[in-house]
Amino acid sequence: MMSSFLWSLIAIQIAMGAFDTFYHHELTERLAWRPSQRHELRLHSLRNALYALLFLTLGWLEVHGFWAMVVIAVLVVEVIVTLMDFVEEDMSRKLPATERINHTLLALNYGAILVLLLPVLIEWADRPTGIVSAYYGFWSILAAVAAIGAGIGGIRDFAASRRLARLNSAPAGGLVERLPGRQTILITGATGFIGSRLAAGLADAGHHVIALIRSPARAENLRPPITLITSLDQLPADATIDAIVNLAGEPIGNGLWTEAKRRKILDSRLSVTNDVVGLIARLDKRPAVLINGSAIGWYGLWQDQALTESAKAHACFSHELCDAWEKAASRAAEHGVRVVYLRIGLVVGTDGGFLTRMLTPFEYGLGGPMGSGQQWMSWIERDDLIRLIAHAIARPDISGPINATAPIPVRNMKFSEELGRRLGRPAVFRIPAMLLRHAAGDFADELLLGGQRVIPNKALSSGFVFRHETLRSAFEAIL
Questions:
Q1: CA–CA separation, 305 vs 291, rounded Å?
Q2: Nearest alpha carbon to residue 462 among 403, 419, 386, 381
Q3: How many CA atoms lie within 13 A of 116 on its CB side?
Q4: What is the value of pTM for the model shown?
Q5: Nearest to 344 by CA among 253, 271, 268
Q6: How far apart are CA 160 and CA 87, in angstroms?
Q7: Backbone φ and ψ of 209, nearest 5°
Q8: Hey, which of 228, 241, 272, 407 would disulfide with 248, CB 3.0 to 4.6 Å?
Q9: Alpha helices in 340-452 (DSSP H)
Q10: CATH entry, 173-478, from 3.30.300.30, 3.30.70.330, 3.40.50.720, 3.90.1150.10
Q11: Where in the chain are all domains bearing CATH 3.40.50.720?
């Protein structure tokens, strides 16, 4: 007979496991959409299947003799799978602190469960082989619910691992084919969603990449050969740099825009950009071009008017941020450097960016338009953005602002419909504008409910050809 204390420990294990699955694996880490975690998901699938079997067995049966030995063997296999999972996680991703703490508590609690459960199983193993029904009231019901949840989770993880096998990104080297020869390119923000792909493309194509990073630990996913620096002061005056791509800055979409957050967003961009201009000033040989990050937020909030690079701006925080960033970069022109302001739209990809926050709710059938759904979304597929950066470096006639968006922007409702269609899910759960404004204020107004209908005139007129002009084409490529 299993004691109530043992069942209490099992209930705690179930609760912590559910938290780990929903909060870490689904919401924050989004493992189901990260190709690098395919093997981890397979291990999760196997472990969930073992948990489902254990919960059903322990909650509703007493297993004697040979069958008790089978349960002990399943427990041993579960421990081995968990250890393999720990190794896989450490090798393939950087776990957040909360997940590491949760894993430690899970391991300690599981150890306590084994200390109490193994004597029961050993005692059952001494009895004649057989299976006897058992019922522990609430604990049996909890075990059944946990078994169903673990089983569904295991099926999802297995299906996600199979899907990820089809989601491997195309080789990055072909994205920068417009760049001639072997160039040395400095990238700030090289560990980010855009910068990491750019660095991979340049390195794979044989160019020399210098990556400015905040700390070596953040460069784990950058594939060599890449020169890593933590400060621009590490570069001597006689260093040869052909181009600089400045993408560094605090993310704007990962938290509410408090005054402290706004200051951090602005200061992070201006600080690095000022350092870049300072580097240019002291180099013996100046780079030919500075490609400086910006965003379509420079234009402010508009309705249906099509916005080209010659459009004016409406005042808001997004405009103030982008305008200050562009003005800081413009000082590089005083040293004879061509400056390009890359006004980036919503970047579509599964490895990061805004789309990753939408995939989980849409996959569970909980996605839909935001507010009226009539706001414009000017987007660009990530690899097209990398190709456009290489295009801007290679074309000496391109300077000033350039809209980094696909030629066919869509309304939020259309975006939701296309994403739901591609995932085979409905997209009918509309989020009220009032709720978003109440929860997020200006963040909601400018990033979620506002929008711009941006047209990439300069890219098109300079001969750049988008691989993905339509959202459907982009989704078919990346999903």
A1: 27
A2: 403
A3: 15
A4: 0.86
A5: 253
A6: 20
A7: -110, 130
A8: 272
A9: 355-363, 382-394, 412-423, 433-440, 442-443
A10: 3.40.50.720
A11: 173-478
